[in-house]
Amino acid sequence: MTTQQIDQSVQGTLKEKLREIFGYSQFRGDQEAIIHSILANRNTFVIMPTGAGKSLCYQLPAIALEGTAIVISPLIALMKNQVDQMNAFGINAQFLNSTLSKAEMNKVKKDTLNGTLKLLYIAPESLTKEENLDFLKRANISFVAIDEAHCISEWGHDFRPEYRKIRGIIDNIGNLPVIALTATATPKVQQDIQKNLQMEDADIFKTSFNRKNLYYEIRPKTDARKQLIRYVKNNKGKSGIIYCLSRKTVEEIAELLNVNDIKALPYHAGLDSQTRMNNQDAFLNEEVDVVVATIAFGMGIDKPDVRFVIHYDAPKSLEGYYQETGRAGRDGLEGNCIMFYSYDDIVKLEKFNKDKSVTERDNARHLLMEMVSYSTLGVCRRRQLLSYFGEYQEKDCGFCDNCLKPTDRHKAQDEVVLALQTVLQTDQRFDAAHLADVLTATENQYITSYEHHKLDVYGKGREFNENVDYWCSLIRQISIYGYLEKDVDNYGVLKLTQKGLNYIEDPYPVTLSKDHNYEIDEEKAEDEDKETTPSSGNAYDEALLGLLKALRKKVAKEKGLPPYVIFQDPSIEEMATTYPTTREEMAQINGVGMGKVAKFGKPFIDLITKYVEENDIETAKDVVVKSTVNKSKVKIFIIQQIDRKVDLEEIAESKDMTMEDLIEEIEHICYSGTRLNLDYYINQVMDRDRQEEIYDYFMNAETDNIGVAMREFAGDEFSEEELRLMRIKFLSEVAN
Model confidence over 64-115: pLDDT tens digits? Predict the structure, then answer.
């Protein structure tokens, strides 16, 4: 049947069903053309951003055609959500996955075989089961829809080996048309999907990745929990999703929100299926405002009025980030996307990849470095995202943190020409890091093996800037501006565009932005922790903050201690926000606790009390971020075990924790003001000289930041674990 014949025979019917079932008067974008492609038995490939109406593209033809459409989906949450929606519309849709009982599975199969089921949602793992394949061969299947098709590609952000088997399974069931759909596919991933599904001849429908209503912002991950509480409270009554790296963090953040009077529920693969479903329904039904979820498991929730998506931890890739932020503002209204960034998160993610094959590890590292680049570049966030997905945007969006609060900018011309010439002279076969090494004459085995040290451009970049990072940033920025493009076949490799070739012949000044350096700007970030999203408001009393810092400096000088030992900046800032005027209120401040109140609290309480009286201030006690430290049985257990001088490895093992997780818990206990004596353990693993060297460092340092300490001791072979243990010892002895 031709598309023209389809237009004549079903055009009116489609419009009627669109209005009658879904309540829409007209199709959006390419929806109608996509549906016609399926009805014509054509293989169809849809690349469409989250919230643009992908689901309708297979739901409506499934209703219009005889038989049952199979929808392959990796997310149990998304299956349930879509089945509930279709059932609410009066359409028989069911899912077949591990959450069903035997009786429920038999009912689904019966409805499929008798032709009453219009949509069958199934996970790829379930497709491979022999009993499911047998019954599908006997059913009247209209077509197959593959949702989240990027899972097919090992270059994608959520590769699932089961997805690579789908083509063979479909061929086993019958000669069926296929529609593959994804919201997050780079040109390379698109190519991989088509090749694996043998859909090179498919009708391709690709819409813009630009979600104009979404606001993007990256914040340094300093005192992130307090920032999180403040942000959610400033957006009271609005729906939001918070993504975390681990199940443990999900549970902790959900508990933190609840003790601070924010209705929140966790959502991750470790919960039983009934709890997951209940939590999902509670969020959809607005019984809770916030869901906290793991990045790995995802949140397949089709809720149109999610007003904010917060990444508490950095995602594994820009595809994952884009898809997850796409849950915000699906109704076209307000959608704020905030990410707390620390390179420590990237390091943790890299550790997760160490047991993968070499190819998988390299792929994962490329994706992580793209995430680092997006987080640190000072370029318009939207332009960066669109460029990543192969879409060029001429102008800045004016509606992201880099546009609203730009980093320092400078003009470059000769440097840009030199970078483009380097791409040409290296035969357009290398990535930004290699090109930067050539420009700065950085010793590298690959440079020698390719004889790039003999090129005219070798080392020429040092005439402008000797820093490799500067050149990496410049190369990435001119890629975003369209002078370079990525080679689809070779990940990371850059080639000149026609615009780049023209530029070499006729150059002109190009405006470049300075990168963010969140590690160096950490203290500045703490002092400037104010909301910058459209729903912003001032956080703390600047005048009181200045008085408290002056007092801290005075007390520190009298006691011969670094100021951060008395109270850290986040604690001082919280005092200037909540005005604690009693010992009990002061002990509620993050990083204080009753131990520190007893040791240092009185002059600070006196200062705040006087300030409140003189300025007639009504204290906002409801802004206090309540800590969950004292409620944790695990923390009490750890304190008791340390008091008994139990080996730390034994404590970690007894609670099924890694050593890193245990030290993190001990740090939380220490920062809440509890004094811990770890000498019995530290004396076993470190000699006295090493201990004294680190102890003296912390006594004279301006900050207790471990990243700064690691840089200070670079080359001295001190491990991060040793530095963290000595920081606990130091703070316990002088601060608690």
Answer: 999 999 999 887 767 887 888 888 888 999 998 877 888 998 999 999 999 8
Residues 650-665, mean pLDDT to the nearest whole number? 85
Residues contacting residue 249 through CB under 8 Å, at least 6 positions apart = 312, 313
Q: Centre a 10 Å sphere on the Cβ of residue 220 and count the other Cβ atoms it contains.
A: 24
pLDDT at site 299: 52
Q: Which of 469-473, 694-698, 718-722 has the highest mean pLDDT?
A: 469-473
Shared-domain flag, residues 318 and 224: yes
- ∠ CA(190), CA(267), CA(251), 5° rounding? 125
Last residue of a domain, one of 190, 206, 222: 206
Question: Quick one: which of 312, 256, 304, 263 has its CA closest to 284?
Answer: 304
What one-character DSSP code corresponds to residue 598? I
Instruction: Give the mean pLDDT of 679-694.
Output: 87
CA–CA distance, 32 with 382 (Å, rounded to integer): 28
Give the integer Cα–Cα distance in Å for 345 and 710: 16
Q: Are residues 450 and 332 in the same domain?
A: no
List CB contacts of 433: < 8 A, sequence separation 6 or more: 468, 472
Give the range of the structural domain holding residue 605, as residue numbers without chain letter: 540-625
- Percentage of residues of the chain with pLDDT beyond 90: 38
- Confidence check: pLDDT of 145 > 90: yes
For residues 118 and 61, what is the distance between their CA atoms, to the nearest angstrom?
A: 10
Looking at the predicted structure, is the pLDDT value of residue 538 above 80? no
Do 427 and 559 share a structural domain? no
Contact yes or no for 256/279 (Cβ under 8 A): no
Is position 518 within any domain? Answer: no
Whether residue 718 lies inside any domain: the answer is yes
In a domain, 394, yes or no: yes
pTM across the whole model: 0.64
Enumerate residues 6+ apart whose C-beta is below 8 A from 607: 547, 548, 551
Residues 6 or more apart whose CB falls under 8 angstroms from that of 449 comprise none
